Amino acid sequence: MDLYVYYRVANTDTGLLAPRVAGMQRRLAQEYGVAAALKRRPEEKEGRQTWMEVYQAVPDGFVTLLERAVAQAGLSGLIDGPRHVECFVDIAACA
Predict the structure, then answer these.
(1) Digits of tens for pLDDT over the chain (95 positions)?
(2) Strands (E), 11-95
(3) CATH code assigned at 82
(4) How many structural domains are present in the chain?
(5) Which long-range CB contacts under 8 A does 44-51 form with residues at least 24 apart?
(6) First vs last Cα of the chain: how many Å apart?
(7) Which domain holds residue 85?
């Protein structure tokens, strides 16, 4: 299963948030062997950016581990609104 997590970030907070997310993703990759990426939409809207964290081939229970890691990294205060978590599986696994 792969996870896609998107949220909005005020332009003024991107410089503080990016290294925190990168550090969190490095730790998660080391501890759980997941491939992680951080992306953003190319456009900005009303002084905000939309960011996307991607985690590939996550183990069972990873959503809970990720929530804990987000709290430990102190991301919530720098995110504008909720984090939206979407889970996807390969089509072959669904059939």
Answers:
(1) 999 999 999 999 999 999 999 999 999 999 999 999 999 999 999 999 999 999 999 999 999 999 999 999 999 999 999 999 999 998 876 65
(2) 35-40, 48-56, 80-88
(3) 3.30.70.600
(4) 1
(5) 44/11, 47/10, 47/11, 47/12, 48/8, 48/9, 48/10, 48/11, 48/80, 49/8, 49/9, 49/11, 49/14, 50/6, 50/7, 50/8, 50/9, 51/6, 51/7, 51/8, 51/9, 51/17, 51/21
(6) 14
(7) 2-94
